[in-house]
Amino acid sequence: MLTLHVAERSPESAVLADGASIAAVGPYEELAAAHPSARVRRWPGILTPGLLNPYGPELLEAMYHPDPREADRLGTDPIGGERAAAIFRADPSRLGASARRGVQRLLAHGTVAVAGELRARPVLDAVRRAGLAVGQRPQRLPGPASLSPTPLVLLPPLAAGGPARFAIFDVTDRADLVRRGAGTCVATVIGGRLVYRAR
Q: Do 37 and 71 sit in the same domain of this protein?
């Protein structure tokens, strides 16, 4: 099924997805006229290729992402350092569930790819299940590990025949995205599937 994604601030770069692949990229009016039967998804902000987070191991293997049921005891923010290590030592089975929650947080920040050498099987499984691509780390890392690293690392431009992997951010333009960060994500698409949508 064809799905046409268009963001109000970047109508010139609408994306026509055909399952897991991109069928076309171009102005919304042209794509809509050429494919009148396509389902249309309208979004605020801008549509981009999505982000590469270079801190896969740091965020998914070295941090514990609390379950919401643990909020009263552990809070809701990711836990790092010795405290996370102690949680995993006490119960190694918690790594897989933590990684799945961490992946969900990455998706909520427009991440479609991670980098860094992932070694733990439960983490690799969580990344594969979500469909996140695994890329190469930049030579210089942008700063401390973060769900919204500074500077943001955008993937190459979208093109017909490529994977339907992109994100939509509720910002006015790319400069505004850089200024406000990846927390402005309203939707993430991987393999043509909507894997995150802001409520």
A: no
